[in-house]
Amino acid sequence: MFQVLVADSMSHEGLQPLLDAKNVNIVQKKVEEVEDDLHLFDALLVRSATKVTESLLTRMTSLKIVGRAGVGVDNIDVDAATKKGVVVINAPDGNTISTAEHTFAMMASLVRHIPQAYVSVKSKEWNRNAFVGAELYGKSLGIIGFGRIGSELAKRARAFGMTVLVFDPFLTRDRAEKIGVKGCSIEDILANSDIITVHTPLTKETKGLLGKVNIGKTKKGVYLINCARGGIIDEEALIQYLENGHVRGVALDVFEVEPPVNSKLLEFDNVITTPHLGASTKEAQLNVATQVSKEVLHFLEGKPVTSSINLPTLTKELFEKIQPFYQLGKKMGNIVSQCMREPVQEIAIQYEGSVAELETSFITKSLLAGFLSARVDSTVNEVNAGMVAKERGISFSEKISSNQSGYENCISVHVQGDHKSFEIKGTHVPNYGERIVGINDFNIDFIPTGYLLYIQHQDKPGVIGRVGKVLGDHKINIATTQVGRKEKGGEAIMMLSFDRSLDEELIDCLKSFEDILSIRTIDL
Ligand SMILES: NC(=O)C1=CN([C@@H]2O[C@H](COP(=O)(O)OP(=O)(O)OC[C@H]3O[C@@H](n4cnc5c(N)ncnc54)[C@H](O)[C@@H]3O)[C@@H](O)[C@H]2O)C=CC1
Ligand SMILES: O=C(O)C(=O)COP(=O)(O)O
């Protein structure tokens, strides 16, 4: 039974996929309320209120996935999650329209003083002269960050007859023209916009993007809007420009600290605010909760997720194609690690044939996870395998190569250690399964499963027989045997499989045979 903690308020209807699942138990409580049981949860669902810190992740020892029912993941320590092998997913497009509409509502409210006029009428005043506003028609709107929300906002602004200037480092001129906006530099936006709104994520680069210097470059009397994340507009700088009258008005849905109880910004009459309501509509909440519930359930049941922040994402169709190679890769990594018990500097992976047309980075991560899991005690999976490898000084590379092996598909791995190297080749035959078809230039053909014994020996009469006799004397049943050699009388290899593991004493006995060069046990 999977245990899922829903730590922030979420649409009940949206959680239905998880509530209906027979193998899932949902607990809807704040983190503080389940402090003693944190180690039990497999999945954690949050919005922006719960801070998923490294410390929380460390206390949640069974955690496999964090689902963010929304877009921004700045409340989640994604690096720490990645290090611990915890998948982070979000619901990227479920609240786009709601947030664009909210931003538009804030913009209209700002230039027409609607919140201030509302408060005035409620206190029995009728002061029409105090709230003379401005039209949006004909004004320039500068949008910084032209992703999902920024572009939906642009469509609405154009319908209101506004000129839209946009800045986004990833926006091509073509795309801007198609949408009917003008892609320009941030300097142009600052100098030419009547209203500026930010729609970027909060990152190291965007923190303080509109700060002392950049706000100083805006038109006197500019309106500023932040319905993205507190901190993209630097609050201290903003206060200075409000005090000196450079900024005419501000609309804020988000703050550096939420709730902003001690913020001086709340004292300005020309600062209008909402309590982080951008995504707070029935529609958006149903969308995002349904999206993450489905994704979390898929993940817990071993199916692919499509909106992961720290994992290569795949559609169901692609996942089905990649799955056999993904499993083969993991086993190959594991075999290499068990055969080559010495420090490794480099892992080079080569893909040939039909497998090379798939998302190979996913297979590479799986192979690395298989390799590392046999060597490190902490959780290693495809989420953190690349990071763990780098931390341990192991470099890895992948290459697509033209078909040299003759197989319809082939994965080859070359591992370089301090003193030795090791090579393995694997293929997947439809309706037949996984096969290891090469080890260190020896052609071989075995199924990578169960308990295996890899023996390097001299190709001399009687060696195989002697090994068989010792195993028989110890009542060990050999399930399969494969042998490979390059030339008569030279070095050869044997791969035997068993139904149970072999004990050390027996291995030592086999090692003592004259023509046996080395022996490795492999458990898969
Ligand atoms: N107030 C609220 O309730 C909500 C707030 N948000 C916030 O809005 C942000 C944007 O959401 P979406 O549009 O869905 O994300 P998105 O990922 O579709 O768009 C973000 C855009 O920002 C651009 N960008 C990144 N760095 C930039 C920089 N330095 N300068 C200019 N552009 C930059 C990216 O290229 C991207 O196109 C989210 O990250 C989240 O923080 C999202 C939903 C609700
Ligand atoms: O999706 C986002 O990034 C949001 O900011 C929405 O936050 P919320 O889920 O309403 O706490």
List the helices and strands and how they pair.
Elements: E1 2-6, H1 16-20, E2 24-28, E3 43-46, H2 54-59, E4 65-68, H3 78-83, E5 87-90, H4 96-112, H5 114-122, E6 140-144, H6 148-159, E7 163-167, H7 173-179, E8 182-183, H8 186-192, E9 195-198, H9 212-216, E10 222-226, H10 235-243, E11 247-252, E12 271-273, H11 282-300, H12 316-339, E13 344-353, H13 360-373, H14 385-391, E14 395-401, E15 409-417, E16 421-429, E17 433-439, E18 442-446, E19 451-458, H15 463-473, E20 478-485, E21 491-498, H16 504-511, E22 516-523
Parallel strand pairs: 1-2, 1-3, 3-4, 4-5, 6-7, 6-9, 7-8, 9-10, 10-11, 11-12, 13-14
Antiparallel strand pairs: 13-15, 15-16, 16-17, 17-18, 19-21, 19-22, 20-21
Helix pairs in contact: 4-6, 12-13, 13-14
1,4-dihydronicotinamide adenine dinucleotide binds at residues 70-72, 95-96, 99, 144-150, 167-170, 199-202, 205-206, 227-229, 253-254, 276, 278-279.
